[in-house]
Design goal:
This protein is of the alpha/beta class and 209 residues long. The protein is 33% helix and 15% strand. The longest helix has 17 residues, at 103-119.
Length: 209
């Protein structure tokens, strides 16, 4: 697949790049996409939730009323789960939600997500971005010239660039990632995928390694 390269002013540079069919033109695997997105979201969970059970509540163990003869249901101490302020039955406990996929499955999931974006025509190639200092207005101007200021956009850089990252950080619909950190969730969560020219080779090398 050939795509036109645009500059930061949204103009056609007259150059084209060819996307590898091994990465951007495979037969997508929907199940692996599901598993990789599920893995990503599960790994974001802190798992620090905790509720006190009956034995962890501070309170008297005195039986509140006698077992029989009152006309009311039997009841134990004030820490009973049936009473307000009592312990919780089978409450949440701290746990680790993360799980792993092997490298081949992860790479295939990312290739599948990139293939869908290519098939939908939602990939745009941009000349490499370089800022002298963080400037949100300057980054937004690039998106506006590309007609992407109202779309959820993922911009993929050749490498980690803190200045560009800080320029995009305050834009709610924009996300910036280096080529090595591109993941299935980020690709699918974006409406448009903007890949800097220098990042294409790195993505292809990473996913074909």
């Amino acid at each position: 697949m050939e795509l036109t390269v645009y500059n930061i002013n949204g103009e056609d540079t007259g150059r084209k790049v060819t996307l590898s069919d091994e990465v951007f033109g495979i037969q997508p695997n929907d199940h692996l996409i599901y598993l990789d997105v599920k893995r990503y979201l599960a790994n974001q969970r802190q798992g620090t939730h905790k509720a006190k059970e009956r034995n962890e509540i501070a309170g008297s163990t005195r039986k509140l009323r006698r077992q029989k003869g009152t006309g009311f249901a039997r009841i134990g101490d004030i820490k009973s789960p049936l009473l307000r302020g009592g312990g919780r039955v089978f409450g949440p406990k701290p746990r680790d939600y993360s799980f792993k996929l092997n490298k081949k499955e992860t790479r295939l999931a990312r290739k599948s997500a990139l293939t869908y974006k290519a098939q939908e025509g939602n990939i745009l190639v941009l000349e490499n971005i370089q800022f002298e200092q963080p400037k949100t207005k300057q980054f937004l101007a690039i998106l506006q010239k590309l007609g992407l200021d109202n779309s959820k956009t993922l911009v993929v850089l050749p490498g980690l660039d803190k200045v560009v990252y800080l320029s995009a950080r305050n834009l709610p619909k924009a996300q910036v990632l280096p080529a090595e950190q591109v993941n299935t969730y980020a690709i699918l969560n974006a409406e448009k995928l903007v890949i800097c020219e220098g990042a294409i080779e790195k993505i292809e090398n990473t996913l074909n390694a």
